[in-house]
Amino acid sequence: MTVVYNRVALIGLGLIASSMFWSIRRGNLANEVVGYARSKKTRETAKRIGLCDHVPDNLEETVNNADLVVLCIPVGVMSEVVAQIAPYLKAGSTLSDVGSVKKAVIDAVEPLVPANVHFVPAHPLAGTEHSGPESGFSTLFDNRWCILVPTSSSAPSAVERLTNLWTGMGAFVDHMDADHHDLVLAVTSHAPHLIAYTMVGVADDLSRVTDKEVINYSAAGFRDFTRIASSDPTMWRDVFLSNKDATLEILGRFTEELFSLQRAIRTEDGDMLFEYFSRTRGIRRGILEAGQDTEAPDFGRSLIDKK
Ligand code: NAP
To answer: Which among 121, 109, 102 is positioned nearest to 159, based on CA atoms?
Structure first.
């Protein structure tokens, strides 16, 4: 593959940034990748495992002369970091992010971006419940979607170049506007995470009554909830606070559906339950056919080729 950017700077060195680094290296998509995390501990870990070609101790050096800077940090701190790096961004360079919410990020970040820098927000729809610099792997984005959310000030040439990077990392690229992105993600990711957090919380309350039964006899369904509910608390707190309206809208609809299922159980309406579950089974089949998951009960993770 051909080099897309000479120098890429990754701010934050967690799951997404480390996966980007291994993937960029795999595809030889940049001549140099520089990385920064706020804690010395994470920077030391990055140096020990060879994550990034260079790991400076400050933001100024990290973004210096970078052709692409990617914010791989929780959405709640993006504007604060952009305010710090703005004076040091190279003229003509691109600033992007990987945040799970787009409207709040664009509203907070775009006014801080210098006029001679292209801002192209993005969100790779790929992840695991793990976090930190050692959790990344080169194949995370393979056959996953990356949504680009260009703003009115994103130059088409900058969008095209960023598209080349994401396709080089194995992703399919699509474009959406920010509001639509946030609504789609509220349905497919944010509300399901909240439901998983709730279900595990309920089971935890129960476990005080039934001792270890919840853990010892946990069925696959509950185990999948616990996997999702072990995701990073900072990241998810920020997601809900910054995608408040869309998440509340979807949770309102969820509650209505839950009530109708509750009613069907109480009134022993087996036909309603059967039809409902047949419809949802079809959705699962569609996801498998689109290659977005596997039949394997571990979601294919044992097959993941680390780095
Ligand atoms: P992560 O593994 O928890 O890593 C977050 C990184 O950000 C850490 O290296 C942390 O540094 C750094 N950081 C936090 N605050 C910072 C600050 N103020 N200045 C500089 N660095 C800071 O997170 P992640 O899962 O990679 O998520 C990163 C972004 O990707 C989030 O915006 C998230 O919404 C988005 N995203 C996540 C997923 C997913 O499934 N995880 C999927 C798609 C998109 P320290 O280690 O020093 O604390």
So the answer is: 121
CATH number of 5-177: 3.40.50.720
**Residue nearest to ligand 1 atom 25, measured at CA:** 15
Ligand 1: centre distance to CA 150 (Å)? 22
3-state secondary structure of 36: strand
Tokens of 202: 């309920």
Q: SS3 for 142?
A: coil
180-289 CATH: 1.10.3660.10
The contacts of residue 263 (CB under 8 Å, 6+ apart) are: 269
Going from N- to C-terminal start, the domains of the chain cover 5-177, 180-289
Q: Is the CB of 152 under 6 A from ligand 1?
A: no
d(CA 176, CA 121): 11
pLDDT higher than 70, residue 41? yes
Q: What is the pLDDT of residues 145-161, one digit of tens each?
A: 999 999 988 999 999 99
